[in-house]
Amino acid sequence: MSQLIEKLNNRTALIGIVGLGYVGLPLLLRYVEAGYKVLGFDIDPNKVEKLHKGETYIKHIPSEAISKARPGFEATTDFSRVREADALILCVPTPLDEHREPDLSFVLNTTDSLVPYLRKDQVVSLESTTYPGTTDEELMPRVESTGLKVGKDIFLVFSPEREDPGNPDFTTRTIPKVVGGITPSCLEAGVALYGQVIDKVVPVSSTRTAEMTKLLENIHRAVNIGLVNEMKIVADRMGIDIHEVIRAAATKPFGFVPYYPGPGLGGHCIPIDPFYLTWKAREYGINTRFIELAGEVNSNMPQWVVGKIADALNDRCKSIKGSRFLILGIAYKKNIDDMRESPAVELMEILQEKGGEIAYTDPHVPSFPKMREHYFDLTSIDVTAETVASFDCVVVATNHDAFDYALIKKYAKLIVDTRGVYLDPADNVLKA
Question: Residue 112 in contact with residue 139, Cβ under 8 Å?
């Protein structure tokens, strides 16, 4: 173990990043920046080819950053090269299945792909968000099936990812890193793995503590967003602008943190992670009613927004059926191209099912991507006075900075604003 720690500390270790998506690619770039050699693994040959050409496939990561890092890394689909790495960091998805239960297939299939090539004196870190117990219940038996003893021959840790795509205030280096190990020696290896590339490493007592930490972070957001979404519904019924209320409350210098309502939850964490805990809690005979209620409120928001759209059209002697809708922004949050769990997509599906004609504009998503559960054969349209005026309703679903909101307000027949973009009241603007 001492040789592994020394290689990690003096940056001569070869770092293997497994899964080169929104989490893995920034991590790869950070390790290269810190002076490590990196071997990136992904099952998608298109990603590997783009990286070797110095090209990006994630909009907020410029191609220049990949080209600059290119001498320090190699990407491959060949998992037999796992044995070359001194450290392996798993950054693969943990979605929900069709029954809204944890789908660990990506984690377990990836681990099974690594197992034949694991060797002594490696550290393996799982970064994928999951329920407490995954690392010791699922990964450890697979790793030890090789005959290697965790904590003695090979070292297993959990360190949850904390990426926030599109946030210019934080980088992979500056976001503190929580690390938990199966054993004390595993923890020591985990701290060494991240200590040279992250400004602050936060060791915790176990992998389960680290797993629960990530869930608490995201459930905290989900519950508070659920609260403010419910407050929005109450305020709307009372004729009160919830965004004005939030701005006023946020002037309190203590005891209040502003959260903002929207058309629903999006992204790879907030809509999904609470279900990982509620599922695992049932094993212990616990019903997480508070968390599930927040999830129910958040999941109902697209339907609530569609109800507001229907009412607004009705006031104009129109119906959803036969009306033309322009969805403004389809990424799950502003200024990025990430479509995962985007509530805008659910809005599009509901409106289309009700007979609406759908188009969208999003400078970050030029064509609608193929997704596991959703697909529209659409490309982003240009926002001009003529195009905006041709739609019966413009729905502000994602508030990208690039949109010309003044132009849209001037020419739109009806705007349904789910993000609080328009502060001043107007006859053609409905806040939803």
Answer: no
